Amino acid sequence: MLLHVHGHSAREAADHLGITPAAVRSTARYARHRLQEALRLDKEGHADDVAH
């Protein structure tokens, strides 16, 4: 959210969250992948199949 919605850099988000910029980028990459998968499954009508 900090990166994409609020426009913060990985460094700014990391400073705010108390983690490394690499961890911010990794978490954002994972979250984007999960969102893309959920949207793809929802489009197919199977969103309940996404693991939490």
TrEMBL record:
SUPFAM superfamilies: Sigma3 and sigma4 domains of RNA polymerase sigma factors. It comes from the Bacteria. InterPro entries: RNA_pol_sigma_r3/r4-like, WH-like_DNA-bd_sf. This is RNA polymerase sigma factor 70 region 4 type 2 domain-containing protein.
